[in-house]
Write a structure and sequence with these properties.
This protein has 335 residues and is of the alpha+beta class. It is 40% helix and 21% strand. It starts with 10 loop residues before the first strand and ends with a helix.
């Protein structure tokens, strides 16, 4: 996408799957584009910009998967409702003709985002298919009817978050090896997303609106208060839903079990704390682990290295910082 014209900002001609962009210097430093993957382009955003970014553009014909590990964003197709994205959100966008829209991200906080784009021909060759038929299967469906485009968001399953972490942590220097690795990760992300969307197109339709809202309320409680103990009985009582219905609804809407999601949230928070200088013991206790050995084992399984190695920067982790405070985009857009 391109910013509203600003002669002080240099134009950057990107891959054909992404239009010309103009980025402030603190944002351009965050961006690494892998545009040698044939019918796929992969953009990595990682760092801490100082100012907010607001973008308007006409996007090309393509299929896009965005995976947010850190950062707050909003986006909208012209004529459509805004979509809010934060840590743990996956966004899918596809268009069969060029479509205009807007995009914004908040500065002053850590940003970790992976953007994977396929040509529609590449999508078909990879075994995918146009996803307009799945419209309505998202938790946030912000498509514009009649525009031949789709945009929606949903909680990214843990395996998709791991793909994004792997991409941001890619350290292969050989061009051939790096290209093979990143293409494989892009195809893995596509397979996960297609499976998730197909399930979403079937599962949520069988969940009553009241139950759906209470499952989302349960997820919000885990995201906000992950340091507390959350046995299934307590969480079900808090949101007024039976344990079996809560667990079934959680798997359908979130893509994992209640405790699987809680573990994911805790370990992501632990990664941020460790990069921020907290000790392993203090971090384990703060995110809800009473056993240091259990924490270390879970962290290594999820993040691919020990907590102490993560502290030393040997893992592809987040930058220090948190997502607390007011949201200028939410306030500016009245969201």
């Amino acid at each position: 996408m391109s910013l509203d014209h600003d002669p002080a900002l240099p134009a950057v001609h990107a891959h054909p799957l992404s239009p010309v962009v103009q980025l402030p210097e603190d944002w351009s430093r965050l961006l690494q584009v892998h545009d040698d993957l044939g019918d796929i382009t992969l953009a990595c955003w990682q760092g801490r910009p100082q100012r907010d970014l607001e973008v308007t553009a006409q996007g090309p014909v393509m299929f896009c998967i965005g995976i947010f590990l850190e950062g707050q964003a909003w986006m909208a197709l012209d004529g459509g409702p805004p979509l809010q994205a934060g840590p743990g959100t996956a966004v899918v966008q596809t268009a069969q003709r060029p479509v205009s829209g807007s995009f914004g991200m908040r500065g002053g906080n850590a940003i970790r985002l992976v953007d994977i784009r396929f040509t529609l021909e590449g999508l078909e060759r990879a075994g995918g298919r146009p996803l307009l038929a799945l419209q309505g299967g998202f938790l946030q469906d912000c498509s514009v009817p009649g525009s031949d485009s789709l945009m929606g968001g949903f909680p990214a399953p843990p395996e998709l978050l791991r793909v994004a972490t792997d991409v941001l942590g890619c350290r292969f220097e050989d061009d051939v090896v790096r290209t093979l690795y990143l293409r494989a990760k892009a195809l893995e992300a596509l397979a996960i997303v297609l499976g998730q969307l197909q399930a979403a197109g079937q599962g949520p339709a069988r969940i009553a609106a009241r139950e759906r809202q209470r499952v989302l309320q349960a997820r919000a409680l885990l995201d906000a208060r992950f340091g507390e103990e959350w046995p299934l009985e307590r969480l079900a009582r808090e949101v007024g839903l039976g344990e079996k219905r809560l667990q079934a609804g959680f798997r359908a809407l979130v893509g994992t079990s209640v405790h699987g999601h809680l573990r994911e949230v805790r370990l992501q928070a632990a990664g941020r704390m460790l990069h921020g200088g907290h000790s392993v013991t203090d971090t384990a206790l703060a995110v809800g682990f009473s056993s240091l050995s259990h924490f270390s084992k879970a962290f290594r399984t999820q993040m691919g290295c020990t907590p102490r190695a993560w502290q030393r920067g040997e893992g592809a982790g987040p930058e220090p910082g948190s997502e607390s405070g007011s949201d200028p985009f939410r306030e500016a857009k009245g969201l």
